[in-house]
Amino acid sequence: MSDKNGLEEAFKGAYGVFGLTTPGGFGSTDHEKELHEGLNLVEAAVKNNVQHFVFSSLDDVTKASGGKISVPHFTNKNKVEQEARKTNIPFKTFVYPPFFADNLPGMMFRLNEDRASAMIFAGINTDRKIPVFAVDDLGIVVSEVFKNPTTYNGRKILTAGDYVTLKEMADICTQVLNIPTQYFAMDAETVGQRMGSEAKNMFTYFNECGYYQDNEQEAVKEARKLFPDLLTFEQYVKKNSQLFLK
Q1: Where does the record place a coiled coil (predicted)?
Q2: Which of 204, 181, 210 is nearest to 191 (CA)?
């Protein structure tokens, strides 16, 4: 998406565009790359008179934390959103995905050497609930948004299929996979050493402010009402059990 001319060519004749940008990785220092690619999406959509622009956004962490915490791969998405809102694109919608359940298999969820037990690792406090859903379910939300442009025009849609703690996720894995699973909450220093400063800041943000700040519980209720087919975490584990057991 760094090639704006290529995007402009791809968008010719398109009614709508769904844009999702990704960071260079937690260890990356090229924070401007994602911002640049997001702005390219907006400019290419405007140039082609796209009627409906749907963008996967997130909150401005710096603003939400009162300037205490910096998580560029959240904040840069919000900067793209703010620029898109200024355009003359007739319909604009901003979908906020929660913590992805897909972060667990092969990453945060690990089978122990005996393969008879497992651990989940993250820098999220044991008692902190977070909104969760499956990556694939983003398609459910976005397709519904495109079908109803007037209803969702200008809206910030907080999404989630479930609202659980990481310990509750471990308990669900124990029940569904029949493998005793424990949650290990890493401290900020350990997260920084293993995953870098941005991951450390991100988990600090979750712990101190909440993924959706004060709106989490209501956001989950509203998302389940608008999009009833979103998977709960238990449904996700049942559907993807083989990914956990690799």
Answers
A1: none
A2: 204
